Structure formats: structure tokens, C-alpha cells
Predict the 3D structure of the following.
Amino acid sequence: MALRTPYLMFIGDAADQLAAKTAQGVVHWRPEWCLGQLRLEGCNADLGIADMTLEEAAEAGVKTLIVGVANRGGIISQAWTNTLVRAMELGMDIASGLHNKLGDLPDVRAAAELHSRALYDVRHPTRAFPIGSGKPRSGNRLLAVGTDCSLGKMYTTLALWREMETRGMNVDFRATGQTGIFIAGDGVSVDAVVADFISGAIEEISPANDADHWDMIEGQGSLFHPSFAGVSLGLLHGAQANALVMCHEPGRQIMRGVLHHAPPSIEDCIQLNETAARLTAPEAKVIALAFNTSKMNDSEAEACMKDHADKFGMPCVDPVRTGVGDIVDILQ
Amino acid sequence: MALRTPYLMFIGDAADQLAAKTAQGVVHWRPEWCLGQLRLEGCNADLGIADMTLEEAAEAGVKTLIVGVANRGGIISQAWTNTLVRAMELGMDIASGLHNKLGDLPDVRAAAELHSRALYDVRHPTRAFPIGSGKPRSGNRLLAVGTDCSLGKMYTTLALWREMETRGMNVDFRATGQTGIFIAGDGVSVDAVVADFISGAIEEISPANDADHWDMIEGQGSLFHPSFAGVSLGLLHGAQANALVMCHEPGRQIMRGVLHHAPPSIEDCIQLNETAARLTAPEAKVIALAFNTSKMNDSEAEACMKDHADKFGMPCVDPVRTGVGDIVDILQ
């Protein structure tokens, strides 16, 4: 795949800031790639970067327009279509994180063909992946796992990648979801892969590498999530990670999106992840805890992290509050 | 889905008996649905049922032609296409277990539209499935799990279903692979479902049921298989099975299709399956062992099964050699 950079961030008529969450994540982690934002009338979000017309973006050298917004009611309006078509006329590719496929819009598909531009629906893998082999491969890999969905696995791996780059280490971020793909410029939406190819897709995006190289692999779901655990297990086997970081939100009572299921204990979650991971990575070990303490005040968060670090005998950080330096110290 | 019965079994120009393995399985378990076989010139397989022309099959009341054969080199010849088109002219639907899709053959698709006939590619799910909910549901479910792929999980569940029917119990077989789908007339090729929907697909095909009802759910893969464990875990969570049967082939050294991986011990495999299953079915328990002892002689097999039954304190059967009566005794 490999998206061409830099980007123009299109957030359409986003109803609120939350609707532009994907675009915001890309701007946060790749400010150097995000030359500007394009907002239509009625847009209530702001990415905090320069507003640009399509013409200004083309002039500035933008190569890809990123549709980084949840559209209202799943309908793509004519105003959007016109924007996408004009961007292609001006030489840009289009990459979208929408559920709807760009190629299903006749005007958009026609313009892509006419101008030989690429359409990337990052939620919908188009590459054919091999079946996972389980074959040992060189290099080092770290995977973020978790007690639940949506508690900071992507943020944790990105923070690690950034910190390791800053320290001059040999590292890549490997994306397994839509926002991560825009940030990495490549990757796979692993939850949209055909079930037989989950582990094979992950083997493919984090290939054998130098002995001092690290892949920071974005995790998905949880082995304890009744909807998505299959994705998490295939990802764990494909990642062949020697290091795991356990992500957790203290105080969460119910697992995201389901009834009746409390999150597992950290102990149980560490044990099951290590057991399963060792099928393909015999040395796999949880080396740190990464907490999302956004609902706590400073002193509560500090006490909570200290307690858990003592109890588990490993660093316990909040990537937002404390950074991830303590984890990178171990990897170094 | 629900295929219309009875069937005509089309085995084309099968190179050998193995190429017609799918068709053979259907004839074995559903002889009453398989009115005849249709073989083309050069066919080296024989299902042991009456040869029939398409016209004879139509006359006999056949509703669906089953393509139950692996085609040579992945190419569908013109002779096949002519057969499929003529079958639709005569009023039959077509159901195929091929990797290639029927609808990708222009003549076949055109004939299906012209005659309003259905094309079923059972390896390629077309239904949209919900995301798994993990919500408890009524009725009883048994799932066959295993130390590896291809060691008798489908056969075991079919043998249980047949024995329970014979005893007048309230039971259904739930298919998760192509051969099973032809035998059940319905089901899902779970390994071809999009990863996010594995457990949801299984919840859908084995819905809530009467308190005395049993679903015998065909298992796939193994939690210890580095290529396919994600499928197996999603299946396990979706099945919400109160009873598990552990399938195993004594003496197998290497897991199917991979290098470097020996099968797990039965103990480890029971423990991990029970732990994982209890996420959605708190009472889940391995209640019996089902061995494939086809490479042993009678006395070896008998000794092996007795040893394991004693060691694990549960029945140990070979569905082919001994039947599954000992397991059904427990379910009753």
C-alpha cells in the first residue's frame, strides 16, 4: 500500500470534535505530514492546523487527501463527492477511513480512473495475505495487549515508537487499524481481514528484520473480549512478540460494547497472553503495564501506578501522564 | 441460506477419489439427499451411488447440483460450465465448495439470472453477520475442539448428531465448513468470515433454543495452531458450549501445514480451551476425548483409548472404531 505523503486532512462537515478523532490522531503523531485541513460549511471540528483550499494544498505539494472523519448517517453528500473529485483532478490520491468504500461512489471511481489516482479504503484490506506460518523470524517485536478494547493500545505503541526514535533506536511502528495506518502510511485493518489470514497478515506487516530492530505493533481488542478475541489471538500469534505491554484502564466495570462482562484481572490477562504468545515466541513476556488514568486526579493516578508497579515488579506508566521512558529503558 | 434438497453430486473429472472427498462425505452422512452422481469423461472417482444424467436428475426431483470436487489446477473447464448451465435450465440451484466463485464465471452467472436460480459458494459467506454479543442464550451446545486441524472434529460432531437423533433426542448439527454445510444444508464457512465477525457468525448459526435441545457444533483448527487459532478462539467464544469434546490423533508429530510446531499435550489443550470457553460459558467443560486411531491396529487403539480414559477420568472413543455412544450417555 504505502500512502504518498504529505497529507491534506479533510474533515468535511464533522458534527463535533469527536467525529474528527481519526484526523486529530494523525495530526498529533504526524504534524510534519499534515500540511493543512479542509473543512466544509457546517463543520464543527478544528484540527488546529492551517485551513487550505484544494488548490492551495496542491500548490503546497500535498499527495494524498485523507478522509479522517465519521460522516453523518453513513451518507456521503454531493459536496463531499465534488471535493474528492476535484482533489484527484489536482493530482491527489484519496485515502479514507470510512465504512463506505470510495470505489462504490460512481463519480469518485470514474475520476480515479480518469486521472489514474489511487483510492485507499484503509478499513477494507485489498491485499491478499498468506496464511500464517508461525516460522521464527529475526528482529524484535513489541505488541500492546489489553484487558479490553479502547484503552490506549495504539497510543502506547506510538508513544514507544516516538521515544525510541528520539533515542536513536532502530524502530518502526506497525499499524493494525485505520488511524494507525494513516500515521504509519501503511499497515492492515486486521479486524477486516478474512479470518483465516489474521496471523498471516501480521507476519506480513512486521517482517524479519535486523537483530537490533524493533517493531512496535499496535494491538487490537482483548483475549477476554467476547466479540473480538479471535482477532486478538491471531494478532498475538502473528506478531511473534518477545515483549508485551499490558494496557488497562483501572476502574472500568464493563467491557466495551457488551453487557454482562467485567474486564479480567490483570493477573489473568497477563497469564493468558503469555501462554498464548509463547506458541510462536517462546520468550514472550509482559514487561510493563500501561494504564489509562484519565479519570483519576494526579495523586490517585500516581498511587495507583506505584501500587501496580510494586505488585507486578515491572514499570507501570500512563503514556499521556508520565511518558513511556521507563519502558524504553528496559528495551534498551 | 438453506440449500434445497435433494442433491445431484457432481464430481466432474476428479483426478482420484481424494479429489471427491467433499462429495463422499455428503453421501456418507446424507445418503437420502444424494439421489445420484454425475461424472464427466476422465473421472477417476466413484461415490458408489447411481450415475445420473442431468435430465434424469431433474426427473427424479433434484433441487440442487452440488459441486463436491477439487477441480484440477483451479481452472473450470468449458465442459463443467456447460453442465452447470444445463442444470439451471432444468431448474436446479448450484452449490459449490470450490475456491473460485461460481458468479465469476460469466456464462454461469448469466444462466442463473436468466433462470432465476441460486448460486451458493459455500466457502464464501455472503450473509452479513452481527458482531458477537457474548450474551448468554438458552439451550445446550457441544463443540468439538482439537489439538490440531484435520483430525476428526467434523466427523465427531456428525457421529454425535446421528447417535442422538437415533436415540430420539432434540439435536441439530451446525456446520462451520464446506462439507458440513452440504450435509446440514446450511451453516457458515467460519474461516472465510471477516475477522471481526467470527464469534457473531457462530452465535447466529447456533441460536437460543429449547432447554432440552442440543446443537452439535463443528469445530475448526486449534487454539494451538499458529495459522488458525484466531478462528478457533472466536468459534469457541461464539459457540457458548457447555460441553467440549477434545479431538486428537495420538502419535502426530507435527501440526498440519506448519513447520516447527509439535501438537500440544492433551492436558494443556484441555486447560486452555476450558479457560477460554468459560468467558462466555462459565460451565464449559471437556467431557470426553475423541481420538483418530486410524494408524493403529485394534489392540493398540484399544489400549491407547483405555489408558487415556483412565488418565483423564472421561470417555475416550474413536468415532469410527467404537462409535460415540459413551459420550451420548453423558449428554442424556
